[in-house]
Amino acid sequence: MESPRLAPRTTVSTEIDQAVTDLWPRLVDWRRHLHRHPELSFRERETARYIGDHLSALGLDVAFPVPTAVVGRLRTGRPGPTLALRADIDAIAVTEDSGLDYASVNPGVMHACGHDGHVAVLLGVASVLHRLRDLLRGEIRLIFQHGEEQVPSGAPELVEAGVLDGVQAIIGQHLWAPLEVGRVCVRPGPLMASTDYFEVLVHGKGGHAGLPHQTVDPLAVAAQVVTSLNHLVARETDPQDSLVVSVTRFHAGETINVIADRAALGGTIRALDERVRQAAPGRIERVVHGVAEAFGARAEVSFRFGPPAVDNDRALVDSVAEAVRRQLGEDALTHYTPVMGGDDFSFYQQHVPGVYLLVGAGVPGADNPPHHHPAFRLDERALAHAARVLADAAAWFCDRERGADDG
């Protein structure tokens, strides 16, 4: 079979390829250890300690800006740029049902989004770049971030702690099960949506279920709110604008023959364009209050605002795409439409240019369970693919010879 076309390789690229091959068993071991021992957002103390121990063993400068996050600094001792690489480290509240022999030993907690793999990849990149540090200039800053899965999340806390001080650019990646292993998506512009949350409380007038005319049924009003929110997306939003409003929770009453006084619902708002995102809360409030008033009820609406959309810098996308070509071949690059899930990597992009890529981790020909599913699993070959690409992109950014040519 004809080998994939590779972009011209530098000495560093070839060294990275071999270094990741040598490191492969450790990548798997790291990932499986972390998979067995997941920790929830903002509770990642043992995970952080595990990461810190490995970085310290390499001789990197290690800091804990908060007790559940780690930053390692690979300083080359030569003048040059500072590039940050980020991995999220938290697990989620899911009871694992994967059948893996390294399944979670912590009841009700699972690495069901691949963050165990993200940590293993970045530990691998740290090892590879430390091995090749004499070929580099500047600094590689390795950010192992806590609390990605929650709102508020960990990224703003780390930015406030100064992890981006002196950084010129940042790169992150997500091992992506919907994408077959061996494929990589790196695209300019929006890649993942903003993620915000809304809560609605409808106040009516309760009463006997057999006498509905004497009540103001908040459940019926809330149901009309749900329908009207769907109309807001389907008929009030430009089809070329991506907006998703999903009602994910609905509750009213406790007794079967009683119309309740109140009904509650909540959900998420997702958008790729900041203009659309900023307009959504006002539009939702208008719909909710209008429906409630029309039926003689009263409503309260509240919002929690999460990360903005992940929006990739074009120049960085081009350089990372070249790293994919050098390490995996032209055929590895794939088109992938923006994802309406979110990631707080976008908070870093508000401060420095950044690129976030999706690295295929789906088992070929298999029915891969989605992220956050109890049976979620990864094709572990993706660990090596991601480590090669990130290390190559970082080495290019901080390449010693390129720096001499530029200067």
From TrEMBL:
Species whose genome carries this gene: Goodfellowiella coeruleoviolacea
Binding sites annotated in the UniProt record for Mn(2+): C113, H115, E149, H174, H372
How is the cofactor bound here? Answer: The Mn(2+) ion enhances activity.
One Pfam family name from the record?
Peptidase_M20
Tell me yes or no: is Ribonucleoprotein among this UniProt entry's keywords: no
Tell me the protein's name: Amidohydrolase
Domain of life the protein comes from: Bacteria
Check the record and name the SUPFAM superfamilies matching this protein.
Bacterial exopeptidase dimerisation domain, Zn-dependent exopeptidases
Which NCBIfam families does the UniProt entry name for this protein? amidohydrolases (TIGR01891)
According to its UniProt entry, the protein's GO biological process terms are: diaminopimelate biosynthetic process
What are its cofactors? Answer: Mn(2+)
Cite the entry's keywords alphabetically: Hydrolase, Manganese, Metal-binding
Gene Ontology terms, MF aspect: metal ion binding; N-acetyldiaminopimelate deacetylase activity
Domain Peptidase M20 dimerisation: start-end pairs: 198-287
